[in-house]
Amino acid sequence: MSIMQNQAFPKYKVAIVDDHRLITESLSHLINDIPGFEMICQASNGKELINYLESGKTTPDIVIVDVNMPVMNGIETSRHLTQHYPLIRLLALSMNDDESSVIQMIRAGCKGYLLKDCGQAELQKALTDILERGFYYSDFVTGKLIHNINKEDKQEDTSIKLTEREMEFIKYAASEMTYKEIANTMKLSERTIDGYRESLFEKLQVKSRVGLVLYAVRLGWVNAH
User: Fold this and answer.
1) DSSP strand E in 74-162: where?
2) End-to-end alpha-carbon separation of the chain, Å?
3) Can you point out the beta strands (E) in 52-184?
4) CA geometry: angle at 7 spanning 74 and 129, to 5°?
5) Which of 9, 27, 136, 154 could form a disulfide with 126 if both were Cys (CB 3.0 to 4.6 A apart)?
6) What are φ and ψ of residue 134, in 5° steps?
């Protein structure tokens, strides 16, 4: 594991966990070339990354996680980070383009999924969107999610009653709008929007905006296309 730190500028701090050294070194150069970002840690598996975090060194804002790794794979690593370091955002980066890998990594807590043949521009957009909007889903990932959703039974829980305003919020949450933009559109304060969000999370037993949208799509509350 190698660690690079630069305290001179308040940049987003990035860590990568991948067992292919050539990949991590190439990504380090790419990320350090992106304005506002710096690589602070490279680890070859989830265990190494967790050891780094537990050592008390600089905590990354976002971790890029490979799926297939020895010792502790990407799914196990993402689950651990989601449970123990909920403020760290996760971006999956893999050669795996199968639906199972995408779904498992998203369910483990990743807020985006990129294939390793992506370009620097898409990597930058994914990192920026996850840190500033909370998620990044390319057309590729969206297609996998929709296909998975369509396979599940559409069984509505009739015990859950939502208000018209909550349904309106869900519709906007399923768009590209930020929470601030939703607040402006609904002519409500951002604090009230936060209240709608937390209330819906509790009612529907979901943990994220992505989970909320997936729930709504599954029940046909919003159109997935």
Assistant:
1) 89-94, 113-115
2) 43
3) 62-65, 89-94, 113-115
4) 45
5) 136
6) 100, -15
Q: Which residues of the chain have pLDDT under 50?
A: 2-6, 153-154
pLDDT of residue 158: 55
At position 109, the amino acid (one-letter code) is G
* 164: CB partners within 8 A, 6+ apart: none
Alpha-carbon span 166 to 191, nearest angstrom: 14
| Burial (Cβ within 10 Å: 0-12, 13-18, ≥19) of residue 8 | exposed
Residues 6 or more apart in contact with residue 202 via CB below 8 angstroms: none
In one-letter notation, the amino acid at residue 118 is C
The string of pLDDT tens digits covering residues 102-157 is 888 888 889 888 888 888 888 999 999 899 888 888 777 776 776 666 665 445 55
Structure tokens at 65: 């996680």
